[in-house]
Predict the 3D structure of the following.
Amino acid sequence: MTTSDDRADNSARNAAIKLVDSALKSGRIVQADHDMRVDQLRRAQTMQDIDIAVRDLQTPPPAAPPTIAPVPATPPGAQSPTVIQNTGAQQWPLVNYGPGAGGVGATNLTATTSKAGGRAIGGIIAAIILVAVIVPIAGAVIAFVSARNSFPDFNGVGPSDDTTYLPGQPPGKNGVNVLTVDGYNDMLDALRSKTNGTFVFDAVIYPRYGVLEVPTGTNNRYQNFYWNGESLQLEDMKGTTDDGQVDIGLVDPQTMVDCVTTVHDRMDTPTSWYVVISDSFGTGPQMSCYASNDFSESTYIIENLDGTITYDSDAEVQPTPAPPS
């Protein structure tokens, strides 16, 4: 447990970010949670801030070994009962589809049932199974044939280009790159159309999509919007925040692209790059540009909206903040 007096350093921040990256890759957290935690860690001032952001991601204790049901004593001469290990898995039911195997109360169907009767019963069972299999398939085929005329005509166009383009790189005909001047402006136009403004509490922008926390107009409540490069969709996620509002319409898209390009180009074999635009500490809007690779290595830069660097994870000496005007 850390205290609020322990100051955070770069090595602690980077180690915590690696832990968050690992949790995302293993499926323990989702992308939005990852982005929020990384943003918190980049801005952490104390070791306690770091501890709070990753405390629940620490390795859990090993699970207790499976238990084995006790076996009752077997009287001499009696058949030993079957032992089933309790592994937590679903046990398949034992279903007796055939004649009894003998014993008290068992019926000797072999002696009382003719071979013809057995064949008849087998035929009935086979017919039932055949109907159970054929009818659903036939129904699905009929439904498909009936509905095919209502399918849209895509004129031979295949699925959208799923290439992840470099910062500032124009996408292909069916591609998306929000981290370009045109891509960013398209997102802004969609936000204006939906909300009549460009204010957000937080904007996380990747090459292929953007996630926006948009104020609802009541207290500090927000609702999430998802931009996929073509349409802006309202998501189910809602919440409250203490962050300040940011007018992302004031962001120079080229400055944003240059910031992400810097971290992308200095990272060895980058696999992820994005920017977070927010005002988490009430000191004014900032852009946090981040890049990482499959080796859990990462680098990031924090800039003011005019491009002035306020923090660089790779710098041995941090920039001196400009005096307040």
Residues 80-116, 140-159 have pLDDT under 50 and may be disordered. The radius of gyration is 31 Å. The chain is about 30% helix and 20% strand.
